[in-house]
Design goal:
This protein has 429 residues and is mostly helical. The chain folds into four domains: 147 residues; 90 residues, Serine Threonine Protein Phosphatase 5, Tetratricopeptide repeat, CATH 1.25.40; 64 residues, no CATH class; 80 residues, Serine Threonine Protein Phosphatase 5, Tetratricopeptide repeat (Alpha Horseshoe). It is built from 22 helices and no strands.
Length: 429
């Protein structure tokens, strides 16, 4: 299940918030450069003469970290009903400080809103103030407000690492799926351009929203980006389950999906091996059946004593041996028909004879969309990456998505990455 973001504590911004202090609040003999800069920034927000004593009382209490005195001073300042923009800014500023001292998020959020709504917050602090205000709104599930504040923070140049994800999720939770997905994709590409690995949540959260909206093609678009950037077996498995669900009763297409699952090391469940073995047996690929079952045993997904798989091996091993010689012989002869050419090539791929299968596929690929797709697979498995990419680019029809995923697979070297969160797709039954 997906979890909600943890709110960033506003106490983390107390050092930055100090930049907004009035000029008169800076120590007269400040020796450190940061303090001088804070003073000059604070001078941007003026306070009226009549409200200055109230601000002085709040400032002194805040500097002394005296929450009780600050509470009293704040109440007195509030009672004065300040109307000047600068006065309302400082009232909000010290409400924020009181909220920080008391760990009161509601007060912190109110203070930030008062500062921003005053219209005179220092330009250099707009990103920080808007980000934290948006963060609080997100935590309160006020997604419309969160969007407003976070967009303002973004426009002000905020570099908070969690901003893109908070904004994406705010759009999605506000039923603005198109905006959320578009922003997620833009954030993904921006992170990649900066040489960073995008947060996986930038793929998972839009995927969940797209799945709920039954927008499967767009779901697969974002999942394709996910396997490109997070090429873990578990991520491949979750993505390919969506294709298995789409394939429905098309057994020939199902076996092609399972072949990619096998190529990406994404098969990890006994049921997957059983389905693969059953489909390959029915299609007449005994060599592939034996290879798949032996792989499952080697990876300890099941054991040699598993009754079902033991039975499969007992019936397919002898057949695979007798078929192999015939297949190799057939590969050296001109095929009688396009159908025979594809059947022979398919069986050759099943026994890892990719080089012999390739010319057979090439001879019929122009008129056989399945052969065009499987030509790319044979080339990929033979290590002919450039040729495979070129072949996959020509694939149309119901294997076009698989062709794109194969292209991602051969262009993306596997790497060790942290464990992936659960994907939105449920395993096929």
């Amino acid at each position: 299940m997906l979890t909600r973001f943890r709110q960033v504590s506003v106490s983390a911004m107390t050092a930055v918030a100090g930049c907004a202090l009035m000029a008169s609040a800076a120590p007269a003999a400040a020796k450190e450069k940061p303090k001088k800069e804070e003073a000059s920034k604070g001078a941007q927000v003026a306070v009226s003469k009549g409200f200055s004593p109230a601000v002085k009382k709040m400032m002194d209490a805040a500097n002394a970290k005296d929450a009780a005195t600050l509470q009293t001073a704040l109440a007195e300042a509030q009672a004065a009903s300040p109307t000047e923009a600068g006065d309302r800014y400082w009232l909000g500023y010290y409400r924020l400080q009181l909220g920080i001292l008391n760990k009161d998020k509601a007060a912190q959020g109110q203070g930030l809103d008062e500062m921003l709504d005053s219209g005179v917050s220092p330009a250099e602090m707009q990103g920080t103030y808007n980000f934290f205000s948006g963060n609080f709104a997100y935590g309160d599930r006020n997604y419309a407000k969160a969007i407003q504040r976070l967009e303002a923070a973004k426009a002000s140049g905020s570099t908070e690492a969690s901003l893109p994800l908070l904004l994406v999720d705010s759009y999605l939770n506000n039923n603005q799926v198109d905006q959320g997905v578009a922003l997620a994709k833009a954030s993904i590409e921006a992170a990649r351009a900066a040489g960073q690995q995008p947060s996986e949540e930038l793929y998972v959260r839009p995927a969940k929203a797209l799945q709920a909206a039954k927008r499967t093609d767009e779901l697969l678009d974002i999942l394709t980006l996910r396997v490109r950037d997070w090429p873990q077996p578990a991520v491949w498995r979750n993505t390919l389950y969506v294709l298995l669900q789409q394939a429905g009763g098309d057994k020939d297409l199902n076996i092609d999906v399972l072949r990619l699952m096998r190529a990406t090391d994404a098969m990890s469940d006994r049921g997957e091996y059983l389905e693969y073995a059953a489909l390959a047996t029915e299609a007449g690929y005994p060599g592939e059946v034996v290879s798949v079952v032996e792989q499952g045993i080697k990876r300890k997904v099941f054991t040699e004593t598993d009754e079902r798989f033991a039975q499969i091996l007992s019936t397919q091993r002898d057949r695979a041996k007798s078929d192999r010689a015939g297949l190799l012989a057939d590969a050296s002869k001109p095929p009688a028909t396009p159908k025979a050419a594809r059947a022979t090539a398919d069986a050759l791929v099943g026994i890892d004879e990719y080089a012999k299968a390739i010319p057979l596929y090439e001879g019929i690929a122009a008129t056989d969309p399945v052969a065009q797709y499987r030509l790319g697979v044979a080339q990929a498995l033979a290590g002919q990456k450039d040729a495979a990419i070129a072949s996959f680019a020509k694939v149309t029809g119901n294997r076009a998505r698989l062709a794109k995923l194969w292209t991602v697979h051969i262009q993306t070297p596997p790497r060790v990455v942290p464990a992936a969160p659960a994907a939105p797709a449920a395993p096929a039954s």
